[in-house]
Amino acid sequence: MSEQGTKQLLTPPPIKAPGQPGVVVDGSPLAIVGIFVAFLRARFAPGNGPPDYPWYQDANKTNILIVSAFEDNVPERGKKPAIYVDKDESVYGKSILGDRVAHRWKDRKEAQWCLSTVPISIDCVAARKGESAILGDIVQWSLYASSDVIQATFSLHDMLTPTLGRTVPYEDDDESWNTPVSFQVQYNVRWTVVPVAPMLREIALRIQESGMGPNEYLLDLATRSISQVP
Fold first, then answer.
1. Where are the beta strands (DSSP E) in the chain?
2. Dihedral of the alpha carbons of 35, 41, 43, 45, in degrees to the nearest 10
3. In this structure, what is the dihedral angle of CA atoms 184, 188, 189, 194, given to the nearest 10 degrees?
């Protein structure tokens, strides 16, 4: 592979999902959740969505709550109608042997790649069963109709067809109904690996400086607090 091609592989692509810098890393499943929170807020913004359910940033003004299921410090949680965006068990899939796609000989730097699969679950909650079903229908169709644009905008590898579930009593509120919408998203994960020998040598030196044998040091490290181990 050419030096230019290797350089491109060694540079991870940007993830345009909203999130807090330094908290949600590029390609984090939480950033994927953020994509769909942002999308649904835009979909239900005044002039874009059903006039009965305009979404406003101002919690006192909005007619519908649209948040991530991980956002616990929302004073309006419990407000209805509401849309909660959540994720299920995500997994990194090994598509190639060792995830290795490139190797740069001058510094032994490696470029690696895999596909991450994140199941997304969206709860459409309302006080009335029919209202919950209407919201679920709008969310499913909006995601399906916009899937190609969403994939292109946020560099997703794939976005499977959204499934609209049955309208059932909401498990977090006996007086509410929930219509779930679920689908899977796949996105490329690229990262680089540098030689770990210097770090391993540092660990070996720390063992030597402790005055303990390797086995004794490592046993203490495994059974005692780090602050107690030299």
1. 65-68, 82-87, 91-93, 100-104, 109-126, 156-159, 163-164, 168-169, 177-193
2. -150
3. 160
Quote the CA–CA distance of 175 and 166 in Å, as a whole number: 17
Separation of alpha carbons 185 and 182, rounded Å: 10
Give the contacts of 179 (CB within 8 A, at least 6 positions apart): 123, 124, 132, 133, 135, 136, 137, 164, 165, 166, 167, 168
**What does the pLDDT look like over 37-96, one tens digit per residue?**
999 999 999 988 788 899 998 888 899 999 998 877 665 666 789 999 999 998 877 766
Tokens of 121: 């679950």
pLDDT tens figures, 119-149:
999 999 999 999 999 999 999 999 999 999 9
